[in-house]
């Protein structure tokens, strides 16, 4: 690319990787992710999250976990979007204990979960019949001040 006078930035690579990911071409995503590093254009948290999300959508949890595990050693702290993607992927794979551990890891690193993170975890736990675990997450959510969103979700529900 530089040979033809184009010096791509992280934004250029991330946009390309995101498009390829949405098209389901994860091999090309990995190729360009590696290429950007080879050209000393280092991925930021958004680029890592795009890679992780692409692998999650494709059901490639191990590859997503591998990218996630590279982030911190490479100087990029996961953000709320990164954690939500990983928690969703872990839940989709039925790894609920690991998803709950990911929530704790998130908080221990100073990344505050938002309603989407809690909602993702509670929904998957509920759908898997893990109501005690879902209740624990809801209780934690209320303790963290996320109850207004929770109440709006229950609006319209009736007790059976």
From TrEMBL:
It comes from the Eukaryota. PPR repeats lie at residues 9-43, 44-78, 79-113, 114-148. Keywords: Repeat. InterPro entries: PPR_rpt, TPR-like_helical_dom_sf. Belongs to the PPR family. P subfamily. This is Pentatricopeptide repeat-containing protein.
